[in-house]
Design a protein that fits this description.
The complex is a heterodimer of chains A (232) and B (257). Chain A has 232 residues and is mainly α. In chain A, 72% of the residues lie in helices and 0% in strands. In chain A, helix 2 packs across helix 9 (200-226) and helix 6 (121-141) packs across helix 8. Classes of the chains: A mainly alpha (232), B alpha+beta (257). The complex binds FE2/S2 (inorganic) cluster (FES).
C-alpha cells in the first residue's frame, strides 16, 4: 500500500516555540501551566476571603495591606491577566480543532466513561470567565452597588450577599468552578506527562477532594451572610 | 431472537448518507455480531438490495480491521473485545441497535460502516519505526531489556490500530493510538535513537491528519479492545515536551512528498 504523506507540517514554523504551540499537545501544555497559575490564585484568594470569618477588622486590614503593596497587587494582576488570556485563547483554538475533527455527529453516542466535569469544561470555562468579569465589576469597581466603599471590603461583602439573588449567583458560579477544577487539577498532571499507576489514583482523589474543599470554602461566605452568621 | 437495526447507509465518501431500518429475524445467540450482519446481508442480496459494507478480516480480534459503533459505543458493549468477538448472546429479543461508522474527519467513509483509516498508517510512517543494521543475525539477548519495560512495551504493542479510540473520543483524537505506538518503541532500548524525533513527527502528523486533541477524559481507554491505558498518552506528552525543547532536529512528518 502506498502511503501518501499529507501537506507540510513543519513549514511556516521558524522556531521551537511556534512549532511547539502549533501542536495540540503544546496548546494543552500552555493550558496546564496557566491552569496551575490560576489554581494557585484561587487558593490564595480563598485564604484571603476566609478571613471574613475573623471579623471586619482582620479582613479590612488584609485588604489595606494588599493595596499598600502595589508591586504585589499589580504583579499578581499582570500574571493573572496573561494566564487568563493564554488559557482562553488556547482553549478556543483547541475547541475549533475539535469541531473540525468530527464534522458529522453521531446519531447516538454514549459518553458514560468520562466524568461530567471533564465533558463540561467548555461550558464551565466560559461561564467562569463571565463570572470573573461580573465579580470584578461587583467587588473591585463597585458597579451597581450604591454604598460601595473600596476600603470597606467586609461591609461590601455583607451588603452584597444579603441579596439572595446575588448570593445564589455566586454559589452557582462556585459550583461550576468546582467542577472545572475537579477535571483541571487531574488533567494538568496527565497533560504534562505525570501519570504513573501508583500515584495517579491518588492525584485523582486529591483533585476531587481539593475541588470540593475549595468550593465549600467559597460557598461558606454567602451562606454565612444569608444565615446571619456574618453581619455588620 | 429478533432485533431491529438502524444502520448508517452511505454509498461513497461524497454521498450524504442516512440511517436505514432493518429487521434481523431469528438471530442465533451463538453468532458473532459480524455473522449476524452476514445473515442480514444475505437476505438483502436475495432481495436485490445492496449489502451493508463493513470492514473485517481475521474475525479473531487480532487484526484491527473491524469496528463500528453499536448504540454509541465503539465495538459494542463487551469490554476489551473487538466487534468481531462480540457475540449475540449479549443481546435479547426486541433490542434496538444503532450501527454507525467511526466518525472523524480523518476517517472518511468508504461505504456504509466501512471507513478509510490510512491516516493511522501515515502516523506510523512518520515515526513508528526503528532503524536496524542488516547483515548477519545478531546474537540473541545481546541487548538487555528490563522485565517491567518489556511487559509495558508489549502491553502498548497490543494496539491493533482499529481506530476505536478516535471513534469514542468526543474530540476525535488519535492520542491513545499515537501514544501506544510511541510508548511501545520508546520503552525499548532499540527505540531510543529515534525517540525524540518520533514523538515530534508522529504528533505533528496526527495533527496534520485532522485528528483532535486529547482532553484526558478516558472514553478511548474504556472502549479499547486491547485495553491500552491512558498512561501511554502521558508518556507521549512527556516525550513530546522534552523533544520540543531539547531536540536539535525538526519533525520529519510531511517535510517532503
Ligand atoms: S476482524 Fe480482525 S480484529 Fe475484528
Amino acid at each position: 500500500m502506498s502511503i501518501q504523506m499529507s501537506a507540510t507540517v513543519v513549514g511556516g514554523h521558524p522556531n521551537r516555540a511556534s512549532r511547539f504551540y502549533a501542536a495540540p499537545i503544546g496548546k494543552k501544555a500552555v493550558m496546564a501551566v496557566t491552569g496551575v497559575v490560576l489554581f494557585g490564585f484561587v487558593l490564595g484568594h480563598l485564604a484571603g476571603n476566609l478571613q471574613v470569618f475573623e471579623g471586619q477588622h482582620q479582613l479590612d486590614s488584609y485588604a489595606a495591606f494588599l493595596k499598600a503593596t502595589p508591586v504585589l497587587l499589580w504583579g499578581t494582576r499582570l500574571v493573572l491577566l496573561v494566564s487568563v488570556i493564554l488559557h482562553i485563547v488556547a482553549s478556543i483554538q483547541l475547541t475549533q480543532m475539535k469541531r473540525a475533527a468530527r464534522p458529522v455527529a453521531y446519531a447516538k453516542k454514549n459518553n458514560s466513561h468520562s466524568s461530567f466535569a471533564s465533558r463540561t469544561m467548555m461550558w464551565s470555562g466560559p461561564f467562569i470567565a463571565f463570572f470573573i468579569a461580573f465579580h470584578l465589576m461587583h467587588f473591585t469597581l463597585g458597579t451597581g452597588q450604591p454604598n460601595f466603599n473600596g476600603a470597606a471590603v467586609f461591609g461590601n461583602i455583607v451588603q452584597a450577599f444579603q441579596s439572595p439573588l446575588v448570593a445564589f449567583f455566586y454559589i452557582f458560579a462556585m459550583l461550576l468552578l468546582g467542577t472545572h477544577l475537579h477535571h483541571g487539577l487531574y488533567s494538568m498532571f496527565q497533560t504534562l506527562g505525570a501519570n504513573h499507576p501508583s500515584f495517579m489514583p491518588v492525584i485523582k482523589r486529591v483533585a476531587a477532594l481539593g475541588a470540593i474543599l475549595i468550593t465549600a470554602g467559597f460557598i461558606a461566605i454567602p451562606v454565612a451572610v444569608l444565615a446571619g452568621v456574618i453581619h455588620t | 431472537m429478533n432485533l431491529t437495526l438502524h444502520v448508517w447507509r452511505q454509498n461513497s465518501a461524497s454521498d450524504k448518507g442516512r440511517m436505514v431500518r432493518y429487521e434481523a429475524r431469528d438471530v442465533n445467540p451463538d453468532m458473532s455480531f459480524l455473522e449476524m450482519l452476514d445473515v442480514v446481508n444475505e437476505e438483502l442480496i436475495l432481495k436485490g438490495d445492496n449489502p451493508i459494507a463493513f470492514d473485517h478480516d481475521c474475525r479473531e480480534g487480532v487484526c484491527g480491521s473491524c469496528g463500528f459503533m453499536i448504540n454509541g459505543v465503539a465495538h459494542g458493549p463487551s469490554h476489551g473485545t473487538a466487534v468481531c468477538q462480540l457475540h449475540m448472546r449479549h443481546y435479547k429479543d426486541g433490542d434496538v441497535l444503532f450501527l454507525e461508522p467511526w466518525r472523524a474527519r480523518a476517517f472518511p467513509v468508504v461505504k456504509d460502516l466501512y471507513v478509510d483509516r490510512k491516516a493511522l498508517d501515515r502516523i506510523i510512517a512518520a515515526g513508528g519505526y526503528i532503524s536496524v543494521s542488516t547483515g548477519s543475525a545478531p546474537d540473541g539477548n545481546a541487548i538487555l531489556v528490563p522485565k517491567d519495560k518489556s511487559d509495558r512495551a508489549m502491553d502498548a504493542a497490543a494496539c491493533i490500530g482499529c481506530g476505536a479510540c478516535v471513534a469514542a473520543c468526543p474530540n476525535a483524537s488519535a492520542a491513545l493510538f499515537t501514544g501506544a505506538k510511541i510508548s511501545h518503541l520508546g520503552l525499548l532500548p532499540q527505540g531510543q535513537p529515534e525517540r525524540r524525533q518520533r514523538a515530534l513527527s508522529m504528533v505533528a502528523q496526527a495533527a496534520a491528519e485532522g485528528f483532535g486533541h486529547c482532553t484526558n477524559i478516558g472514553e478511548c481507554e474504556a472502549v479499547c479492545p486491547k485495553e491500552i491505558k491512558l498512561e501511554v498518552i502521558a508518556r507521549m506528552n512527556r516525550d513530546f515536551l522534552k523533544a520540543s525543547w531539547t531536540s536539535r532536529q525538526k519533525p520529519l512528518a510531511g517535510s517532503d512528498g
